[in-house]
DNA sequence: CTCCCGATAT
DNA sequence: ATATCAGGAG
């Protein structure tokens, strides 16, 4: 069975079990950008506890651009890396006001130029807020599962993304991220993967 | 490569 | 106590 066939089965089986959207709470590109930045090394569950307060205080870039950095730090503290995240979000808000008319840009190049935004975050925003399949968001779950299943021999996010882009059809790129993340959280966990309960058990190389 | 960093599971 | 959590920058 080649990688394309495995990829087809992965999509087919996981689509029966999981949703095709993020577990983050957001209602526009700005909110998704903020939520995704906050999600670095933090569970989406935790992010969803912080973002309602955040969006109430700073519902758009113009509000956040004028915020006190200490207040932002206070609100997002529980998500970890709070100093970096607060500084990056406020600076991003200022850039959006100055260069992008207060709007979240819709290209990879522009998004990754923002502080605290690299390909993973940009892919999430492009795919989910704008419906643009520019690449595949490779986070800790996607990286781990792609390697374990046997879809890649690489371990760096960029190389894993390149491998996955060759294997999965473009229209599924956003779904690849969502489905692998959900399986990674529930079954193929970093510490104790539950292979017995895994819907991919028979097609997985189990490179654990 | 290291650093950023609080919350949670094991 | 330690590993890990929807990463990114220096």
3D architecture notes:
The protein is mainly α and 208 residues long. It folds into two domains: 3-21 and 135-203, Helix-hairpin-Helix base-excision DNA repair enzymes (C-terminal) (Endonuclease Iii, domain 2), CATH 1.10.1670.10; 29-129, Hypothetical protein, domain 2 (Endonuclease III, domain 1). It contains eleven helices and no strands. It has helices spanning 3-15, 29-38, 44-57, 61-65, 69-76, 82-99, 108-112, 119-129, 140-149, 157-167, 173-186. Helix 2 crosses helix 3 and helix 9 (140-149) crosses helix 11 (173-186). The two termini are 20 Å apart. The model has no long low-confidence stretch (mean pLDDT 96). The structure holds a DNA duplex (10 and 10 nucleotides).
Comma- or semicolon-separated keywords:
208 residues; Endonuclease Iii, domain 2; DNA-binding; 57% helix; single chain; mainly alpha; Endonuclease III, domain 1; 11 helices
